[in-house]
Amino acid sequence: MQIIPIADAGLGNTAYLVDLGDGSGLVVDPERDPRPYLEVAKQHRITIRHVAETHLHADFVSGARELIALGASLIAPSAAQLAYPHTPVDDGTLLSVGDFELTVIATPGHTPEHVAYLLGDGQQPLALFSGGTLMAGGVARPDLVSPDLTIPLARLAYQSVRNIFDSLPDDVELHPTHGAGSFCSAGSVDGTGRTTIGSQRSSHPAVLASSEDDFVGSLMGGLGTFPPYFLTLRPVNQAGPLVYGVDLPTLSLLDINAIDELIAKGGTIVDARTIVAFGQGHIPGSISNELRDHFGTWLGWMLKSDTPLGFVLDADQDERELVRQALNIGFENLSGKINFDQWRASGQEVASIDLVDAAQIDPADAVLDVRQDNEYHNGHVDGAMHVELGALTLGPADELPPAVIHCGHGQRAMTGASLLARAGVETLAVTTAGPEEIARYR
After folding, report:
1. Fold of 355-439
2. 430: which strand partners?
3. Which residue from 14, 315, 370, 442 has the fewest beta carbons nearer than 10 Å?
4. For residue 426, what pLDDT band results from cuts at 50, 70 and 90?
């Protein structure tokens, strides 16, 4: 048995390619772009014949249809009610895949339709692909479907996890889809490294909790915020997303007139250049979101998926990666790209935001911390204001005084500054310093 993890660091998720021994392969919970799975399969001389979905995903557009279009067959929970070809499965369904067997285990909790897949060789169980209901060190959040279902799903998560621990041997490998860094997770979870049922059985919160009520109370207390687009993708994945294939769309270059038209019809300019470049000069009203692993997450946190988008990119940046991340979260209204040097050279207005280090911050200046709540509570600058970056889009901007904005490395801080500037709120500066460094100079 060979199981190859294929991770997306930005989303904190891992898909898996399983070598089924007969030259065929199984992919569990793929994201939209098929290339990573095809490339790894080619390296291992595997042909992808099967895809398995554990649930309707909220944090990314499924790549199942992409792999179906390339010849694979899909296995998915019947309760997901997918509108495209698949083999529907339920608790106890047994399937032959290559030289192995897959047993379906109903594991509602993260979602109502959630299942796990137990891989075995006909003699013994070998590995469990647990999706989100059972994660290393925790479970995935139960509040992404409906407020009325949140508490019932939390209780089902407890029952599902306990059922797995009661029924599987210690040496079964555990392979969750969601992991550390995923906004689908609840509270603090472990990384995506190798673990087993036995290891989790001795330390998992569902085991350590004194009761189901204790577990549910703790779980609900650990739920942070999540990107709004999480509430839009379940129906997209149920109906079936568009299929692009391995050749993703390219961005056409927008001239000045096209940029004006984009803005006039309610579009937004997203500047994906470094925060240094954005600070030195940018198109007024544009939003800074430096292209990095977490680009897609913050794009989906700040904007709606139907917003027409134009992107400012430097020539040496990876346009395909930007398009991949946008499509991966269901953002498909991509109007084109913008050359900022051409914008400046044409005499158009240019805005700027000062970028400073901790030593340059006046101790009398107000400081605004835009990190997540858990980060803030784990340590912050004394007296700092705190508003999560995602909440800056909800309207508190006009209540904020001019401030130096910080996060941990500067990217989220610059995004926050650009949102405030767009709302007409003055920003003193952005700093790349974290709270400990800032505190040393105050």
Report:
1. Oxidized Rhodanese; domain 1 (3.40.250)
2. 355, 405
3. 315
4. confident
